[in-house]
Design a protein that fits this description.
Length: 66
């Protein structure tokens, strides 16, 4: 049986993902680069970060404090 991470670990992962998202969006996100590259990179980052955040939310046991 696989143990799922607890609430505090899930919140920590989401905070780190938020920091990473802000950093990458400032460097490569929407409005950066030539006309289409900013939109393309921003869209790719958005999809990737949404997938990672959904993975963290669904893979965490929010009722466990450990």
């Amino acid at each position: 049986m696989r143990d799922r991470p607890g609430c505090l670990q899930g919140l920590t992962k989401l905070l780190m993902l938020n920091w990473l998202s802000d950093f990458l969006q400032e460097r490569f996100g929407f409005g950066r680069g030539c006309s289409c590259t900013g939109i393309g990179c921003g869209l790719i980052l958005l999809i990737a970060l949404l997938a990672l955040s959904c993975s963290v939310v669904t893979g965490t046991d929010w009722f466990s404090l450990w």
